[in-house]
Amino acid sequence: LALSVFGSFISYIYSAPPLKLKQNGWAGNYALGASYISLPWWCGQAVFGELDRPVFWILPILYSIAGLGIAIVNDFKSIEGDRAMGLNSLPVAFGIDGAKYICAASVTLTQLGVAGYLYTIGETTYTAILMALILPQIYFQATLLIPDPVKNDVKYQASSQPFFVFGILATALCLGHHDFADLA
Asked: How far apart are CA 31 and CA 16, in angstroms?
């Protein structure tokens, strides 16, 4: 119930005054990332397990930073409208060049951090899987996102996002199969 109330609250304040999170590129895009990544992850964990360890809260929150980067891609195509409506999306605030690097960095660095965590808990196979899923994303960033994020936004998302989603899945499977008693 608490997750449902939280999700409803986030969806309301995303568009409604006085907070209207979408007016701020950082807050709005993070709210989208959390709604698409953290909330479903927590709901799945609550249904199929327990939310009894900090890692079950922290990793989805971290992945939501990557979700912020994914949400930036959607802002490239609406930069003129955002500017006209007074929305301070990250492409408006930092320009297209600045925002494309924020996008790439948030997606890549977050996943590298998660891979590092998986490695520290001894999950080397899942670390290797996640690293293998990060590499194509970096390739698509270098060949589609960075050269022209406005022209290539849809192609970049279609090419890169499946690897990102499979990375989330691999991480969730890793946590579901990991024996946290070994860390105690």
From this structure: 13
| pLDDT range class, residue 91, cuts 50, 70, 90 | very high
Q: Is 14 helix (H, G, I), strand (E, B) or coil?
A: helix
pTM over 0.85: yes
Q: How far apart are CA 141 and CA 157, in angstroms?
A: 10
Q: How large is the C-alpha radius of gyration of the chain?
A: 17
Q: How far is CA 157 from the centre of its chain?
A: 13
> What is residue 181's three-state secondary structure?
helix
| Burial (Cβ within 10 Å: 0-12, 13-18, ≥19) of residue 17 | exposed
Q: What is the DSSP string of 37-93?
A: IIHHHHHHHHHHS---SHHHHHHHHHHHHHHHHHHHHHHHTTHHHHHHHT-B-HHHH
By the 8 A CB rule, do 125 and 132 touch?
no
- Residues 6 or more apart whose CB falls under 8 angstroms from that of 112 comprise 134
3-state helix, strand, coil in the chain (%, to 5): 85, 0, 15
Look up residue 90 and give its two tokens.
């990250």
Residue 76 structure tokens:
């490239």
Q: Quick one: average pLDDT of 156-165?
A: 97
In which band, very low, low, confident or very high, does the pLDDT at 181 lie, cut at 50, 70 and 90? confident
**Cα–Cα distance, 118 to 126 (Å, whole number):** 7
